[in-house]
Amino acid sequence: MTRFIVTGTDTDVGKTVFAAGLSQALKASYWKPAQAGLEGETDSQAVARLAPEATVLPEAYRLETPCSPHEAARVDGVQIDDAALALPQVDGPLVVEGAGGVLVPYREDLLAADLFARWSLPAIVVARTTLGTISHTLLSIEALTTRGLPVAGVAFIGEEEPVAEGAITRIAEVPHLGRLPRLAPLDADTLAAAFATHIRVDLLS
Ligand SMILES: Nc1ncnc2c1ncn2[C@@H]1O[C@H](COP(=O)(O)OP(=O)(O)O)[C@@H](O)[C@H]1O
Ligand SMILES: [Mg+2]
């Protein structure tokens, strides 16, 4: 079964773009458990635009406030329930995109990585290539492996930085899934082409 969690070192690192590329490549269902912030394009809307062959599932939680899900839920007066965060049952591949980074709280007693551990799916860590990424990425991987989660690999976004990319994947002993360059324009066609050229989807099967 091809099912993955797409997480990352931080918010805005490129998880949604990577998840869209992966969902298109696998013709997968895409699920964002909790969307915090509904102004502008949501992650699910971005994936629908960038991955026309993906099936975008409805989010379990759509929260108005653009901040950590635990705080967005508090402000919105919403209770985050475990049952609503159960993995959707789908036939075929599934790509799940977490909010923010690996230790983002969905509730104060439920961090993203704890939720991932319940689902027990391999995690892909999306990381930038700029200075500071080695520590952030190794910390993220450590938080996942400490909870017993398999890490399917690291996918980098940005300019090529072979020293940092190599250090991360060798030290953590995880696959280097490739690096997506910054795309301009970024649309379904340029993303599909860049994904086919730069991302080792073969390492995920
Ligand atoms: N490879 C890329 N090429 C061009 N723009 C990108 C790329 N990856 C991310 N972006 C842009 O950077 C911003 C943050 O990316 P996003 O995927 O939404 O991050 P995250 O899901 O980690 O918060 C978005 O505006 C997105 O369009
Ligand atoms: Mg996102």
Quick overview of this protein structure:
The chain has 205 residues and is α/β, with parallel strands linked by helices.
Radius of gyration: 16 Å
The SS-based structural class is alpha/beta
Indicate the mean pLDDT: 97
Q: Report low-confidence residues grouped into runs of 5 or more.
A: none
Instruction: Report the CATH topology name.
Output: Rossmann fold
Helix content: 25-40%
Description:
Catalyzes a mechanistically unusual reaction, the ATP-dependent insertion of CO2 between the N7 and N8 nitrogen atoms of 7,8-diaminopelargonic acid (DAPA, also called 7,8-diammoniononanoate) to form a ureido ring. Pathway: Cofactor biosynthesis; biotin biosynthesis; biotin from 7,8-diaminononanoate: step 1/2. By secondary structure, this protein is an alpha/beta fold. The protein has a single domain, classed as Rossmann fold, CATH 3.40.50. The chain has seven helices and eleven strands. The chain has a seven-stranded parallel β-sheet, sandwiched between helices. It binds adenosine-5'-diphosphate (ADP) and magnesium ion. Adenosine-5'-diphosphate binds next to helix 1.
Keywords:
205 residues; alpha/beta; Rossmann fold; 7-stranded parallel beta sheet; 7 helices; 35% helix; globular; binds adenosine-5'-diphosphate; binds magnesium ion
